[in-house]
Amino acid sequence: MVCGSVRSDGEGAEMLAHRLNRRDGLAVGVMLFSMFFGAGNLILAPLLGVQAAGSTPLALAGFIVSAVGLPVLTIAAIALSGSVRQLADRISPLFSEVFAALVYLAIGPFLAIPRTATTSYEMLRPLLPTDLSPTAALLVFSLAFFAVAYVLAMHPSRLTELMGKASGPALLLLIVLVVGAVLVSPPGGPASAAAGDYAARPLVAGFVCGYQTMDVLAALAFGIVIAMNVREKGLEDTRDVARQVMRSGAIAGVLMMLIYCGFGYLGYTMGSVVPGVGNGAEVIAAAARIEFGSLGAVLVAAIFGLACLNVCIGLTCSISEYFSERYARLGYRQWALAVVVVSFLLSNVGLTAILGYSVPLLLALYPVAICLVAMGLLQGRVGRSGVGRSDAGNAGARVGDARDAPAWRLAVALCALDSVTVALRDGYAPTLWLPFDMLPLADLHMGWITLAVLGLVVGRLWRCARSGEGGVQ
């Protein structure tokens, strides 16, 4: 940043110490993008482009709000609060303990990390000899995949060098290569008509599609590692670290938005080529095959492999760092080993079964996470322990505006009541009718919004009545 006047060397050094230089700041932003952008992020926008047809621009706008806006706001909320536990502590210490553990386990070894290996393998399979045993091939591939991930996760404070300056830019380059080829030579045109909700309400349908990335949960987990890498670059003051984490979130958000728009356009041009397709990976693979021939399968395998490996490393680092700080009986290396071993086993013998309860768990946690993020943004910084620091000194994070605490507790409780009940119903008894189905937006799995707002309003009215205030503040 160029200032309007020249300062002395000492003063300039002091100013520069409050933020990273452009190159390091960009590298941290690319690292965060790489940690977010896994297989699920790759496949949603191309499928949206196919299904939305002529309504793709509107659908993409809604998609970007939920798939980019919500995760970036979550990064900001974590930067202001200190960590996911410090944010959730405002509800109660017990809630914070349980919620944080469930978030890290659900997006880690219970679902997302095992899926990184299986998805990478599925995209590599077309390149393998046809006489190979799929079971044996997956076993060997996943063993190698998790071994590499474990080795690279051994230095969590150096992820900026790995992802921000190597694997992240490589992934961006490969994506630009495929999307750029489609921009120069579109393989087809849009589908004849938009499908499903994209025909009637494309903006809302796009928002719901982006909601499926579940990146708000990932953003809650990544804050501790992002802050660690920012400190590794020389920033120490907690306020400077928080500001830099938010800048990194903005950079990651811009990159994700550009990539989503590119993939949305790719899907739009493939509507007439693969009508009725049900998987975004098939859309990307078909477009790459048209543009690059047999080399297209190699490009797609490399894109998915890099994306999944980046996410696997990022999640392994974040989860291991959190649990090694919180439960110090095992060190970082032991927690990382436990994460990759469990993920390896599930990716080979139990992923289908684990999906049965992990997906409902994610759907139950996601609305609560969004509610907590809203609380963090509206209340701002309430503690001074800093982003990514140990929770040992987080008592200060609970001393914010105590007057609002009952209102937020009620909002989170009602939100959780809806999200947990509906997630269990959808996972195990999908035909069962619930009173929650009568709420506005319930058909979009967002009936919890009404209850959360109701809880906040009632809680504040109750506070005002008890304190004798004249109105809701």
Can you walk me through this structure?
The protein is mainly α and 473 residues long. The chain has a single domain (17-351), classed as Amino acid/polyamine transporter I, CATH 1.20.1740.10. Helix content is 72%, strand content 0%. The longest helix is centred in the last third of the chain and has 48 residues, at 332-379. Mean pLDDT is 85; it is low at 1-16, 381-386 and 388-400.
SSE topology:
Elements: H1 9-16, H2 22-36, H3 39-52, H4 56-81, H5 84-88, H6 93-106, H7 112-124, H8 134-152, H9 159-184, H10 197-200, H11 202-211, H12 215-232, H13 238-269, H14 280-292, H15 295-326, H16 332-379, H17 405-428, H18 448-467
Helix pairs in contact: 2-9, 2-12, 2-13, 3-4, 3-11, 3-13, 3-14, 4-11, 4-12, 4-13, 4-16, 6-16, 7-15, 7-16, 8-15, 8-16, 9-13, 9-15, 12-13, 12-15, 14-15, 15-16, 16-17, 17-18
Short description:
With 473 residues, the protein is mainly α. 72% of the residues lie in helices and 0% in strands. It is globular, with a radius of gyration of 23 Å.
CATH superfamily: Amino acid/polyamine transporter I
Question: Helix and strand string, N-terminal first?
Answer: HHHHHHHHHHHHHHHHHH
CATH top level class name: Mainly Alpha
**N- to C-terminal separation?**
39 Å
What share of residues is helical? over 70%
How would the global form be characterised? globular
Q: List segments where confidence is low: pLDDT < 50 over at least 5 consecutive residues.
A: 1-16, 381-386, 388-400
Overall number of strands:
0
Tell me, rounded to a whole number, the average pLDDT: 85
**Portion in beta strands:** under 5%
Number of domains: 1
Give me the number of helical elements.
18
What is the CATH third-level topology name? Amino acid/polyamine transporter I
Largest sheet features: none
Radius of gyration: 23 Å
Going by CATH, the architecture would be Up-down Bundle
Structural class: mainly alpha
